[in-house]
Sequence to fold (151 residues):
Amino acid sequence: MAILAENKKVIHNYQILEKYEAGLVLSGPEVKSVKKGQINLKGSYITISPNQEAWLINAHIAPYPPAKREQKDYNPLRKRKILLHKKEIISLLGKSKQKGLTILPLKVYTKHGFVKIEIGLAKGKKKYDKRELIKKRETERKIRRALRGKV
Fold:
């Protein structure tokens, strides 16, 4: 499993409640571009359409230079279909309707040659939650340093 892109802002700004692995429908040149790491998940999100299909919105996949002829009218920000089981889509749809919950892409990676995306059901963190987390991390770091120094 090779991680191609990671959405680090999501981990900082949101609390991840559940994670799902899904497939991503891409064109041939897009697959090559993604495997080269030319994908950006910043500002992207996932919506579920009324006919129960999941879509990745606002993910930027750069055009693949050798395939210029095939990609004349290429839109790098076009919406892309996400492949999930029907039960997972229904579950996500029900949970995302709750106040404050959203579905966001966490990372894109390859698994057995296929491009996969990890999506998460997320709840936004408040500013004081972020501060608490930073304080907790700092105290744990100090404790580890103190224990290392004594042993």
